[in-house]
Design a protein that fits this description.
This protein is α+β, with helices and mostly antiparallel strands. The chain contains 19 helices and 16 strands.
Amino acid sequence: MPQPPDEIDAVAVRTWCSLALEALGRERAAIDAINVYPVADGDTGTNLYLTVESAAAAVEAVFAAHETGSTAPAPADAVRAMAHGALIGARGNSGTILAQLLRGMAAVLSASGDARHLRTALTEAAAAARLAVAHPVEGTVLTVATAAAEAAGATDRSAGLTDVASAAYEGARAALAATPGQLEVLGRAGVVDAGGQGLVAVLGALLEAVGGRPQEHAVRPAPDVLPLTGDCADAGEGNGPAFEVIYLLEARDEAVAKLRSRLDALGDSLVVVGGDGLWNVHVHVDDAGAAVEAGVEAGRPYRIRITHFAADRGSAHREPVQRAVVVVVPGDGLSGLCAEAGATTVLARPGEPPASGELVDAIRRAHAREVVLLPNDAQLRHTAAAAAEQARAEGIRVALVPTRAAVQGIAALAVHEPGRSFDEDVVAMTSAAGATRYAELAVAERQSWTMAGICQAGDILGLIDGDVAVIGEDVPGTARTVLDRMLSAGGELVTLVLGEDVPDTLADELSAHVREGYLAVDTVVYRGGHQAAPLLIGVE
């Protein structure tokens, strides 16, 4: 029988991530089912799984970089990759806290992975996680993490690595079992804390990775729906904010301190984790746009995910809503706009289109039996089709409306009506999108031949329905020409989506141009925020 390792090396980190992913994969649905706090949205198991999946992928990337060498990666490289992967891939409240726990552990284990350092790592991790949460609550994953650290710290100084890991695991299990008596919403629902349950699985994987044998344990199933009232409902999912907002943020420490204060005033369930210029921000708010704007003021937010919670959150076990819309948007401004209309959004960063896995994740986050998917980009048609097919295999009815631009998605979302039958709704949304011509302005990067002639670097290009139709010298003149071309075939409504660096005066000028030349045509203007194109145009 092989001897237990004396230290957590790179191979042990890799094994830990793999075993944790397997454990969360087995328990994902059961953890989702007992998720009643802070919001009963039934996705804690899924969020933890996706967070660890990102951590495991980052560790695998480190090993792949060493494939040609004769030695394994340095332990410090592996634990730092694990923490970074969890940070950039963290999902939901519990996933964000888990990312901070792993980051806190990595800060210590990068120096050494022996038993003494593991004790310290667990203590530092629990403390860091509490600091990351604006208003810590007992009976949650924070309580479980603290109990694990205290149990590990109480081991004899001569205890080996396996003994310390085993103590942390058993301490976490005992704390988890006590959570229903600490948090009223858990006691009334008859379940343990979902995030704490996930942490127990992760610590069990750590114990197994260093040579121990975690005890078999089953997730306590959720009982039938129990209505929440009074303080219990207010403390959890009953009447909370309408949106969950998550984004990565590149910002300085002093800017993040101000961001915490602003977001804390906007909503609840605030968790900000990270450091060294990169942060993961999670908050529940009623004003999703304001939460994103706060991030823009602090630094550069990206990978923005906005989820609209179901209106019927007053039960301890959230049932899926009947229908939802998932929209891919090119800028953070449209993320807020679409979220306020009830859609779940996926941000397409310039030059980084979302993968099918991101779209599947968004479909799952929508928590609906029926989903309308709006990719808003012709280049995403195959990616969106693959995501729709995977979601259908999971029992979700998905209709893919082949929108090719954000303005077509806006038009489709405007006529969305959940009260109609699914087929009728999809037909109406498809018709609205198809009746919308789309255009965008772009800056030529180099001399090249186009359908409108030869352009030079720096020229303003007007693309209509995907093809270059106008070559101009400035944005206002090119935009006016594009509008005239599009409106020559008729139209009732012009939609303008302005990029973050475009002044409001352009919208005023173009609106006046439409009013003067096309009396029966209305104009609406939206701020798209950080997007690749300075101006998007739609004509319905």
